[in-house]
Amino acid sequence: MQSTFRLTRVALGALLACTGTALAQSPHILAGISAGKVAVISDGDYVARTYADSVLAPSEAGHKDLLTILSIENGRVVQSRLSVSNSVTAAPEVLELAPDGRTAFVTERLGERPQGGRTVKDLPPGNRLFAIDLSEAANPKLAAIAEVGVNPEALAVSPDGRRVAVVSNTASQSLLQIVVFKDGKFGKVASFDLAEHGIQGQTSGSRGGLTATNVQWHPSGRFVAVNINTQNRIAFFELSVDQGAANIKPWGQPVETGRDPFVGRFTPDGRYYLTSNWGRDFKATTLDGRIPDAASTISLIKLASPDSEDPRHQHLLNVDTDISAEGIAISPDGRLVATINMRGTAFPEDSPRHTKDAGISLLTLDPEAGKLEKVGDYPFEGVLPEGGTFDLTGDHLLATVFEGHPGAGSDRGAGVEVFRVIKGARPSLQRVGRLTLPHGAHHVDVAP
């Protein structure tokens, strides 16, 4: 499937309707961040309680789907926003910056809310991949839109910035798609049905119960990992390009993980792949039944040599993190791992499982010994934190907060929670503060 939309003045005008820029002194909590750009994606349709009652945010609240860009230079920040369709119902990885920071990529699992839409059922399936030009920090612009399979769950940008991988789950197929990006425009979309490449459904229901929730590029750019969370395993593929046509083949056998490996990351040296295993019960029909009350886990997978003729990846171990861990981040040196934990903030306030604090779990990774160890949990107030990232030097950790609890002040509402990383024999985190942003923040990324 291949399709690229022409950007008409009407479509572009609708997308830019919420654009605004402001130049101000950099907030003190960003002063030490090692990044030229910080990007945050926010969903305006959902509120936390939507997961329990399926009712969307009231239109009078004024929430919107937004991409916020903070460009930091010489102690000052330029903050700009652009209306871009997206959905918190996907994995956090619906946003990523190009390696050079000049383009942001966003995909939408669910489409834009129709006039008068009030419930989740009113939201159409999404099928678009957006490229936003960030070359002018104060004036982000929509550069291109590509059509991908419906219900895209996650995206990843190749290390050279020339391709975007997207996973989608249609009614009948789980798809891995490789989209060419060149000169600010999308090109060919190569689409691969995972069932035709050895990853098949095993139960009844849509796609035989197969769901792909995450995709990541190996640092070499030769391989991708796809998380199959409903089968508790990761599939690895090798990408080849012949005369402009992309193709994939399995890179070793799929590797079993802990329960519900929702997201994952390669280490910067390409030797390991780690998954954050949320642990949900997909047979449950209620929020209380689906969300686990035990700690989530991380799985550590040692990867075969890229040049091996008979690649065999190895699942080394699982380590407990905290309840309802969703996002995962790995430091630039590959020695620190963090999970962003929702804990009981996903439950309404009248639920006995509701908690006011979410948290971060910090772990150390010894790549020589293949050892992963949890060193601490760091609670903070806020609802549904999901995505997170270290800054470019690994001196800070940023985590999104979807919304605040009723009555919370601006320093406890939606935005980005910032921690300083205290390095040493036993690393720790020290809270810096919260960057206040519009409702619905669910992923963050940084670039030079």
UniProtKB/TrEMBL annotation:
Tell me which Pfam families the record gives: Lactonase (PF10282)
InterPro entries in the record: Host-pathogen_enzymatic-act, Lactonase_7-beta_prop, WD40/YVTN_repeat-like_dom_sf
What is this protein's name?
A: Lactonase-like protein
The protein's superkingdom reads Bacteria
Q: Which organism is it from?
A: Rhizobium etli bv. mimosae str. IE4771
The entry's keywords: Plasmid, Signal
PANTHER family reported in the protein's UniProt record: DIHYDRO-HEME D1 DEHYDROGENASE (PTHR47197:SF3), PROTEIN NIRF (PTHR47197)
Signal sequence span is 1-24
